[in-house]
Every structure is written in structure tokens, then in C-alpha cells.
TrEMBL record:
Protein name: TPR repeat
Claim: Transport is one of the keywords in the record: no
Record Gene3D superfamilies: 3.30.70.270, Tetratricopeptide repeat domain
TPR repeats: 659-692
Keywords assigned: TPR repeat
Source species: Desulfovibrio piger
UniProt-listed GO biological process terms: protein O-linked glycosylation via mannose
């Protein structure tokens, strides 16, 4: 069998990565309270050494005659350890053999990369970590990147000619080519990136804590450049055979939708892989780039597959690429023979979206003699809005739909919003000109495009209306139509919802939309709640979002966006899930913007939420967090103090909210250098929430900065005890910031052994703690141990969190290894950062 050389040999890095498993196996023979790994470069013990007075045991770890490291066990039982001393080398050897076998199951035999299951496990863990950080944006360590940088990137590298190579050259030749490509891929790959083999002809890179799609793009381009050099001569002809490579990438959670984020991590990891795979597949189309982000598939990754009758075409964009009905695309032909750019051929709008393709209708042609044909490329013009849709009888947009479109008059029609009826005729006459659906489970209502056209007309005939979107949460397959039919039938059985002949239609492929003229959202909410309850009882999960006009300063054309915000809010509620577009809905929409890095957009929506309800303490608190993120601490303090003025309803939620506000005030005062005020607010926070971990940590920081190290240790130990209680209640081991702070304090007090034990414990609980890795690297360098391990930890640290301190430690480790040129580059990076 063609295997990667030394794929299963243990290294010192493997000891670090499988530290928890090593201690689990050793724990079957000997118990200890703490442990630490050492990597001495000289004077390492040959046999286990017991230090009875200190209750410590030094256990050297040898494999195949070479020293991997020395394990120091603290808090052992002296009598048991002394009895085991003769057998400990054999026990350690068995444990290392187990680690080697475990590593063999995690490594692909051909490429030496991680297996697909290992990659999925890492993706699930990383996605869970990202979700935790998004769920608590006010984490108290103050050392994480901004929220918009806390994302996970996945790059998929695809061998598009893999089957062709196997067919012509055989499987052994293809495996050898894959092995060489994997070797090239591993060169200069950051140590925190997980490289794995995926499928028969694919490799994947998992990038934790990337800054976004640009980091994935650069990583993919660099990997393709290195792998391009992998080549083999054909056995018979001597002709050089190279892999034809392309790449796609997706980012979590930006490339996931709201409902998908509630799925188990098992499902989310595989959905992200499918999106990266789809992006890589799109690169095979003519004229496509070699690297395609999933987010750009809709922008410019679509093509016309074939022409259909009645001016329609089939396009290669489906629900998997987040296409939905109503999206408009410009169509571009192939470039001319004279090297001219792609000619503009016209516009299409999506009418029916399937899993992998869609049917689109031609809105207009730039040249009637040049019809749309297979191979033409698409570029997105706009995301569909219910207020602006270019589908109307005759292929022209109504003036009220798209203000200012060339060839139309009255470009301000969408903004004038008269209360009286225009001269377009009655509502009944307008609906009679457009036929409703005649077959299927949703017969009797309008298709997506026809509803949009009618809504654009009817919203101008009333000064008060409600727009409601009801979404069914079932998989995107044949069951959706039946579920929508069941939802529509239940809606028709509620007289209050059918009163006044409301306009009903499809909204995308998994939702219904209703327009109620001369109604109020507050009056209709109980009836939509009853609809959701009835369907939930029948086993059909649904959610409904309602937006009523007038609302704040929103125009009629902006009500659809308000309905979507209400729907997003409703999906977070317990069943029956029905919600209004109100202050809380705007608050949640702003939270989402903040999580995606749009701080200024979030500030605008938080202010609108306060305009809708001045006593929305959540919005005021969040507004203060945004101001603090922008460095405007005085404004942040003003908003937090305003939040304390509104008491709200009594109860545990109010007490927790007040505690969080006090904590936020403490962090702002600490940033402003007002230590006494900060300490006062932290103590107020602990008074309302005695289990608030971060308030204890911040108080410890203030004490440490003031030189009161014993008092600081007391606060850190209290925080560690709270973390242990919370982990016990949750039934799982959680990350421990308090132990990292205790380790830093111990290192400053010259207690290197204690610091090392605490850091190992910290990294066992959270393998992605960049600050703990950096501190441990410093300890290895200060102890004159293996600088290669310090380099590994420092590289991981700067990969997770780019700081000047991290690059300085990396430079020190590289210099200890004699790599002066690389050390100078790291120092330059530190000075730039």
C-alpha cells in the first residue's frame, strides 16, 4: 500500500495535541492532581524519578529510543508511585503506542493529512466556540478579536481532473500525485490550520478565527500556487502529468442563515462543507476564477444552462446557492474574438427556484437578434424586495415599483405615498388582470412575482396596512409544497384573517405572504399566534412575522424588510412563534448587524429601537457596547447610566440586566483609567450577580495592577471556583479564563512550575486559548527547553490572535533555533502590528 512516510510516528507536537488522552490512559495506573509537559534539550532523566517530599514524579517519555518529552506529575500518592516505579517505563511505552495508533486512525494513509471525520470534529468544535463568543459579546477577558473577526473559514481544494488521471494512469499513480500535492500543501501552512483529505479527489483547510473571506481567499491562492508544482512523469511516455486544481471557500457563520444556526453542530459542519464544495464546483464553468467564495456565487457565479420556451431560461443557481424567487440578474455574453469585454445581453428574474437550478424569465433583451443561450454569465443586480420588483405584464416595471428606472415617469412615486386611490382602477380590477395559481397545494393564491407586482400597486391605495410572512420550517424538498398547502388551509379556516379579501401569495419556496389593507398588526397578532399554535399542534413548525404601517419613519416600501425583521424575531420565540416588528425586533436585527461587524448599521437600528420604546434597556445597553467598541467610552458610559434609570419589571431577569449594566460601566471606567469607579461598579455587579465570573476577574486585574497580588489571587481563585461550579452544572468541561489569569500571576511571582500546570489545565479546557499558548511558549523559552515547541505554540497563538507580543515571542523562539532571517521578519511584523 502506498502510504505517507512516517505518517504515524509520534512527535512532540502530538504530545501537546493529545495531552488529555495521555493523562486519561496514565490515570488508569497512577493518579495526580496536576501535570505539566517539559521538553528539555539536555540532562533529561533516563528513568522515572520520584520526589517524595514534593509529591512529584518525573516520567520521561521515550519512543523508539528517542526522548519525546518529560511528564511531571504533581500530587501523586508516594506509596503507590514507589511501587510502580519499575513498571512505569513499560506503562509509558504502552500509552505512547496507544497515542500512535490513535494518530493512525486520524491520518489519511496516502496523503498524511487528517481524515474527513477528524476535520468534521474540528469544525464542530470551532463552530461551537464561535457561537459561544457571539452569544456573549461582553466577555470579560478583553483580549479577543472584534466579533466580526470571530469566524471560521473552510477552503476546499478540488482535483477537477482526478478521475481522468485515474482512468489514464491508474490508481497508484493518482495516489502518488495526491501525496506530492499534499506535501506541497503542508509547506508554509500555519500551524493552527487543519489540513484534511476530503472525498476521493479533494483536500480541505480549516482556518479558525479568520478575519473573513479575504483570509480564506489568500490562503486558497497560496495553496494552489504551492500545489501547482506537484507533478509526475507518465510511466510510458514520460509526459509530465499535473493536477488541475480549483478552490472554493465558505465562512461560518456569515454563510449560514438564521434557521440553519439552530441546527445541531453535526449538521452545520456538513452544510458548510457542501457550500465550500459548491463554490469549488462553480469554478469549472467557462470564464470562472480558480478560487470562488460561496458568497460570490450569487454575485457573478451563475450561468445560463439552456434556453426554454416562452422567453425563459434555466440557470445554474439554486437554493443551495441561496437563490430565491424575485432575484434579478444581468446577462453577459462570451467575450468577442477581438478581445472586447463581455457584451451585455439583457436581464432575467428568477421565477422558480429548485435545489441546484432555477427557471428565470427574460425581463428584456438588449438586442432582439441576440437571444440568451447556454454559457451566458449572470451577475446579480439586486436582492428582491417586495416593494421593487420588475415583473409586470408586458415585461415592464410599474412606476411605483422601481423609482427612477429609465423609460418610466414619476420617479418619486414610491416616496409620495398618497392616502387617496390613484387612477389605476379598483383593487378587484387590478387583481383580475393577473391570474392566481390554478394547480398544486397552493391553488388560489398568487405566485411570488405576481404578488410583488400587486403589492406594489395596492400599498398605494391605503394609509394603513399589515404585511405578514408565515414561514414553514421543513427541509427544502418535495414536502415543502404540501406543508405550504397545509398552512394555507389552516389560514383560510380563521375568519378574522380572511376578512377584507387580503392579498395572499408565495414568498420564496418555504413561506406565504399576506397583505391586509386597513388593518393593524396588534389586532391581527393574536390570530396569527392561533394559526401558529394550530399548525404546531399538527406537527408542522411555523413562524410568523407581522409589520404594520405606519411604523416610526419607515416608508411603505420598507415594510417588507420590517416583516422580515419581525420573522427573525419570531423564530427566537418559544412556540407559538409569532412576532411584531417592534422595538425588540429592531434590537435583534441590530444585534445581527453587530455580530457581522456592521457596528455603524447596528447603532442606527439600536437608536430606532429606542425611538420605538425608550425603556428598551437591552437596546440602550447594546448601544453602549457599540460605542465602547468604537472607543467612544464617554458616550458608552452615558448610555449605560441611562439604562440604569429604567428599572423595568421586578424579577431575576431585571436583576441580571442591572448586574450586566454595572459590569459594562466598570469596563468603561477601567478603559478611562478611573479605577476606583470601575471597582465600585464591579462590586455592585457581584452584589446583584454573585456568580458573575468576569466581574471577579476584572477586580483581580485591578488589584494586580495596583500591586496587591495576594488580593488579586483571591479574586482569581473565586472566579475559578465559579467556573468549576458552572461546568459541573452544565455537565461538561468549559474554558477557564481564571486559570490563565492565575498562571500569569504565578509566572510574575517566579512560580514557574505552578504556572505551567495551570496553563496545561487551561489548554485542556480550551485548546484555542491564544494567550495561554503564548504564556506557555514564554515559559519554555525561559526554562531553556526545546525552542521548537515554543515556536509551535507562538505560531498557533498569532494565528488565533495577531498581537505584537505574539510575534516577539515567535521571533525569540526562531532566534533560539538559529533561524535569524525568519526571526527578523517576525520582529518586523511585531513593529508593524
Amino acid at each position: 500500500m502506498n502510504t505517507a512516510p512516517s505518517a504515524c510516528d509520534l512527535t512532540r507536537r502530538d504530545l501537546m495535541d493529545m495531552d488529555a488522552l495521555l493523562m486519561q490512559e496514565l490515570g488508569k495506573f497512577i493518579q495526580c492532581s496536576h501535570h505539566a509537559l517539559y521538553f528539555p534539550t539536555a540532562h533529561a532523566p533516563r528513568q522515572p524519578e520520584l520526589l517524595p517530599r514534593e509529591r512529584r514524579l518525573l516520567l520521561p517519555l521515550y519512543r523508539q529510543g528517542s526522548l519525546l518529552g518529560v511528564l511531571m506529575l504533581h500530587g501523586v500518592k508516594v506509596r503507590d508511585a514507589r511501587a510502580l516505579l519499575p513498571q512505569l517505563p513499560a506503562i509509558a511505552g504502552l500509552c505512547l503506542e496507544l497515542l500512535a495508533r490513535v494518530k493512525a486512525t486520524r491520518v489519511d494513509a496516502v496523503t498524511g493529512l487528517a481524515t474527513e471525520n477528524v476535520l468534521y470534529g474540528a469544525m464542530e468544535d470551532e463552530a461551537a466556540r464561535v457561537r459561544e463568543l457571539f452569544a456573549d459579546p461582553s466577555r470579560g477577558d478583553g483580549e479577543h478579536s472584534p466579533l466580526h473577526r470571530l469566524c471560521m473559514g473552510l477552503v476546499l481544494l478540488h482535483f477537477s481532473n482526478g478521475r481522468e488521471i485515474v482512468g489514464r494512469m491508474g490508481f497508484r499513480f493518482a495516489d502518488e500525485l495526491m501525496r506530492r500535492a499534499a506535501e506541497a500543501l503542508r509547506e508554509e501552512l500555519p500551524s493552527d490550520v487543519v489540513a484534511a483529505r476530503v472525498g476521493r479527489f479533494g483536500m480541505a483547510l480549516l482556518l479558525p478565527s479568520v478575519s473573513g473571506r479575504s483570509a480564506c481567499q489568500k490562503t486558497a491562492e497560496a495553496a494552489l500556487a504551492r500545489m501547482a508544482g506537484a507533478a509526475l512523469p507518465a510511466p510510458l511516455t514520460g509526459r509530465t502529468i499535473r493536477p488541475r486544481l480549483s478552490a472554493g471557500h465558505a465562512v461560518y457563520p456569515q454563510d449560514m442563515e438564521g434557521a440553519e444556526l439552530r441546527l445541531p453542530m453535526f449538521e452545520q459542519a456538513r452544510m458548510l462543507m457542501e457550500r465550500a464544495r459548491l463554490a469549488a464546483r462553480m469554478t469549472s464553468q467557462p470564464g470562472a476564477p480558480r478560487v470562488m467564495p460561496f458568497a460570490r456565487i450569487l454575485q457573478d457565479g451563475g450561468t445560463v444552462l439552456r434556453a426554454l420556451p416562452q422567453g425563459r431560461v434555466r440557470v445554474g443557481l439554486g437554493a443551495q446557492a441561496k437563490a430565491r424567487e424575485g432575484m434579478r440578474f444581468a446577462v453577459w455574453g462570451p467575450s468577442g474574438q477581438d478581445g472586447a469585454g463581455n457584451p451585455y445581453k439583457g436581464e432575467v428574474v428568477l421565477l422558480q427556484v429548485r435545489e441546484f437550478h432555477s427557471v428565470a424569465e427574460t425581463v428584456h433583451l438588449a438586442d432582439a437578434t441576440a437571444p440568451l443561450e447556454a454559457g451566458d454569465r449572470l451577475s446579480l443586480l439586486e436582492v428582491p424586495s417586495l416593494a421593487a420588483f420588475p415583473h409586470a405584464p408586458g415585461g415592464r416595471a410599474a412606476a411605483a415599483d422601481v423609482p427612477g428606472t429609465p423609460g418610466q415617469e414619476g420617479s418619486a412615486a414610491a416616496d409620495t405615498e398618497p392616502d387617496g386611490a390613484p387612477a389605476a382602477g379598483s383593487v378587484r380590477e387590478g387583481r383580475a388582470r393577473i391570474p392566481a395559481l390554478e394547480d398544486g397545494a397552493c391553488a388560489g393564491i398568487y405566485g411570488h412575482g405576481d404578488f410583488l407586482h400587486l403589492f406594489a400597486q395596492e400599498k398605494e391605495r391605503t394609509g394603513r396596512f399589515v404585511l405578514a410572512i408565515v414561514r414553514v420550517d421543513v427541509p427544502h424538498d418535495a414536502r415543502q409544497e404540501a406543508a405550504l398547502g397545509e398552512c394555507l388551509a389552516a389560514w383560510r379556516q380563521i375568519p378574522e384573517l380572511c376578512a377584507g379579501e387580503p392579498l395572499a401569495g408565495l414568498y420564496g419556496s418555504n413561506a406565504l405572504i399576506f397583505f391586509h389593507a386597513d388593518s393593524s398588526a396588534e389586532a391581527l397578532l393574536p390570530h396569527y399566534t392561533a394559526l401558529c399554535a394550530r399548525l404546531e399542534a399538527a406537527g408542522l413548525p411555523v413562524s410568523a412575522g407581522l409589520a404594520g404601517y405606519p411604523f416610526l419613519h419607515y416608508r411603505k416600501g420598507e415594510m417588507p424588510d420590517c416583516a422580515l425583521k419581525a420573522l427573525e424575531y419570531a423564530q427566537l420565540l418559544p412556540p407559538p412563534r409569532a412576532g411584531l416588528c417592534n422595538s425588540l425586533a429592531l434590537n435583534i436585527s441590530a444585534d445581527r448587524r453587530y455580530a457581522l461587524g456592521d457596528v455603524f448599521g447596528a447603532i442606527d437600528e439600536y437608536k430606532l429601537a429606542l425611538l420605538a420604546d425608550a425603556e428598551n434597556v437591552l437596546a440602550r445597553n447594546s448601544l453602549g457596547v457599540c460605542m465602547a467598541a468604537l472607543g467612544r467610552y464617554h458616550e458608552a458610559r452615558r448610555h449605560f447610566l441611562e439604562a440604569l434609570r429604567y428599572k423595568g419589571d421586578a424579577g431575576p431577569e431585571r436583576q441580571a440586566r442591572i448586574a450586566q449594566t454595572h459590569y459594562n460601566l466598570g469596563t468603561v471606567c477601567q478603559q478611562l483609567g478611573e479605577r476606583r469607579s470601575a471597582a465600585r461598579y464591579y462590586r455592585e455587579c457581584i452584589k446583584d450577580a454573585p456568580e458573575h465570573v468576569y466581574a471577579h476577574l476584572r477586580l483581580g486585574q485591578l488589584c494586580e495592577e495596583g500591586g496587591r497580588r495576594n488580593e488579586a489571587r483571591r479574586f482569581y481563585e473565586l472566579a475559578a471556583a465559579i467556573e468549576d461550579r458552572q461546568s459541573e452544572q452544565a455537565g461538561e468541561q468549559r474554558p477557564s479564563l481564571a486559570r490563565r489569569y492565575l498562571a500569569r500571576l504565578a509566572a510574575r511571582q517566579r512560580h514557574g512550575g505552578e504556572a505551567r500546570e495551570l496553563l496545561h489545565d487551561t489548554l485542556l479546557r480550551n485548546p484555542f486559548d491564544a494567550a495561554a499558548m503564548l504564556l506557555l511558549a514564554r515559559l519554555y523559552l525561559d526554562g531553556d527547553e526545546d525552542p521548537a515547541m515554543a515556536e509551535l505554540l507562538a505560531r498557533k497563538s498569532v494565528g488565533l490572535r495577531d498581537t505584537p507580543e505574539g510575534w516577539q515571542v515567535l521571533a525569540r523562539a526562531l532566534r533560539a533555533l538559529g533561524r535569524e532571517e525568519e526571526a527578523s521578519l517576525a520582529e518586523a511584523h511585531a513593529s508593524v502590528g
